Amino acid sequence: MNNYLISKLTLAISRRTFLHRSAVIAGGALLAGPGFAAQQNCRPTESEIIGPYYRFGAPFRARLAGPDEPGDRLVLTGTVFSSDCHTPLPKALIEVWQANHAGFYDTNKPGNFTETTTFHLRGMLYTNEKGQYEIETIVPGRYPIPPNLPGLEKYAGLTRPAHIHMRFMESLHVPVTTQLYFKGDPFIANDPWAGHKPSLAIDLKQDGKLRRGVFDVVLARAL
Ligand SMILES: [Fe+2]
User: Fold this and answer.
1) Distance from the CA of 99 to the center of ligand 1, in angstroms?
2) Which residues surround ligand 1, an ion (CB under 5 A)?
3) Cα of 97 to ligand 1 centre, how many Å?
4) Which of 9, 43, 160, 192 has the most C-beta neighbours closer than 10 Å?
5) Does residue 70 contact residue 143 with C-beta atoms inside 8 Å?
6) 106-157, pLDDT tens digit by residue?
7) Residue 90 Cα, ligand 1 centroid: separation in angstroms?
8) Is residue 219 exposed (0-12), middle (13-18) or buried (19+ Cβ within 10 Å)?
């Protein structure tokens, strides 16, 4: 083997060793970081339609449901991460809105986004210094899509799986509007939205009288 081939071979082996070590180091960092759960499939949280029941102006609160609200109590927690799935985002603004346990929103005027409602089961909140949030609410009920909604006419009457609407905003990142679903809901499979986005369905665990769910979110960095 001439000197040229030997030097090329040595370079190739060195490069392979470097890449292997880099991968090991990167893997170790993934295991050590707080965002490990999200990093296994690191990509921005999928978006969903805003739906006909969004209203702007909900009060700042993390407790959406009072003690007398019918339904199964739900504590929803999570962390909002930057696009590396590792860096938490403090002061990210979260908007959340949902139906009650029977599938009714606080308005019977779907598609009227400027209506001022009682803002029942709606709220806004910020993530804390660690990018975390906690929302106290109830498990929402399912509901059929109302008739004559612009753009959704062909889905009228279709029962949607239980879901919670959420929007996440942070100044250096691309906002995302999405919906959160619950694994095991038989209405997910045929839903035109949830059926294609399994990443948006979470497990609920029973904790005494509470159900607990975790929904971590990843926002793409704005360039
Ligand atoms: Fe909805």
Assistant:
1) 7
2) 51
3) 8
4) 160
5) no
6) 988 888 888 878 899 999 999 999 999 999 999 999 999 999 888 899 999 9
7) 27
8) buried
